[in-house]
Amino acid sequence: MLQCIAGCNRRRITARRERNGTTNALMTGMQFWMDTNAYASRTEHSPIKSVQLGCMDTVTSPEANDFEDTIEGLIFVNINETEQHPIRYIVQWKQRTYDGSPTGENGWITASIESEPIFKVKGMLPVMQYKFMVTAVGPGGRLGGPVMSDWAQSLTVDHKLHAPVGPLMITTQYNNEDGLSALVNWYHSPYQQKPPPDISDDRLMSFGNCHYSITVLNETSRETLLFTLDNGNGILISNLQFSTEYSVALRSISSERIDLSLSQQRNVSHEGDTTPEPVKNLEAMVNSNGSVIIQWVPPSEPNAILVYQLLYQSLTNHYDCDKDPSSIYINAGSTTATIQLHSRTHCEYSIKLINYDLIGREASTEIIIWYRPDTHSFKSNLIYIYPILMLISIIISLKCCICLCCSNTSSDRSMLLSSCSKKDTVTIL
């Protein structure tokens, strides 16, 4: 039998540790919270520049037996450019009522710990005043002291949607990532109301809505985007076309409809992932003068069409037929087009209509037509041209004969006159 020098099936040596209960964990955490940052009570050392309630919406309960209507909003935490970037944000709040003077103010209540500088606040009561306090936390503890927002009064239950404040400000730009783009912004930041005389130390703010719909359209396309307000400068619309005039419309969307609208938008996007449909009932009416009137019925999703392209080319191998292919682009809202053929003989033509969707995919429909130019007018003209040509030929021949006769007569007369002249001269001498 082999001897186990180091020991067979050695037992792991472990040390018993005392279980750390919730009470000890709470005390340890509080001590860490108090001791880890020497500047914890000084706001100027916080990476947070400011805290503000950026927007509000009224949330209506879908069922009568559900909770009463409440107010929700978005908190924006503005961060300074600092090396100590927070990894968590401790959010606290308090409220008060106002009936001529502020009353019923409660103490600070810790609400949540957030990981992003933008977060949603739910369950605010209508027509109450709220203040929020945010503390930045890093790996080593607190980063400076807490930063508070201004007092903000929540909306009423029957609050109507706010139209965007002021004119839309649009700035165009170009880069490799977004192509030609436009930054659309407006005055969505909270605007100051005149504070009551007895609370002049605080500023009451009024707010716009949190959810918006923006529509961008030109002559060939229309696009609608749904978005939620953030702490940026606006919304960026990318991949625009050069030398194109656009119209931009912005409107507010209620919080009850935003989920449904986003769901519908996802469905539209899913439908847009399928192959586009070609046009229906493509027809062409050929006139004797060479003009061709083409008409069609758009596909079932006409809003997904970016532009039409009409291609036509002769299939007849004849020198009088237009062998070179021709192409024209047609507005997405059109259902008719006119082309002009210039062949001088009977020619067969192929006409293809291609519709492109918003991402460049295509579908096409093709028809074959015959063009027979009107030759009756040309033949009827020959009936009059031939007699005229014969008459002109006869007139020219007669004129030539007359000229020859006149030339011979003039020659004989000159000889007679010459002889008479000589006789007279001899008589005088």
Structural account:
With 429 residues, the protein is an alpha+beta fold. The chain folds into 3 domains: 36-153, Immunoglobulin-like (Sandwich); 169-272, Immunoglobulin-like, CATH 2.60.40; 280-371, Immunoglobulin-like. Helices cover 20% and strands 38% of the residues. The chain has 3 helices and 25 strands. It has helices at residues 22-35, 255-272, 376-428, and strands at 48-59, 70-79, 88-98, 102-103, 109-114, 118-124, 129-138, 141-142, 147-148, 152-153, 169-175, 179-185, 191-192, 205-206, 211-217, 222-228, 235-237, 247-253, 280-286, 291-297, 305-314, 326-330, 336-340, 347-357, 362-371. The strands form 7 sheets. Strands 3, 4, 5, 7, 8, 9 and 10 form a 7-stranded antiparallel beta sheet that branches. A hairpin with a 3-residue loop joins strand 3 and strand 4 (102-103). It is rod-shaped and about 145 Å long. The model is unreliable at 4-17, 191-196, 198-203, 267-272 and 416-429 (pLDDT under 50). InterPro entries: FN3_dom (IPR003961), FN3_sf (IPR036116), Ig-like_fold (IPR013783). It comes from Elaeophora elaphi. Keywords: Membrane, Transmembrane, Transmembrane helix. Residues 59-143, 164-259, 276-360 form the Fibronectin type-III domain.
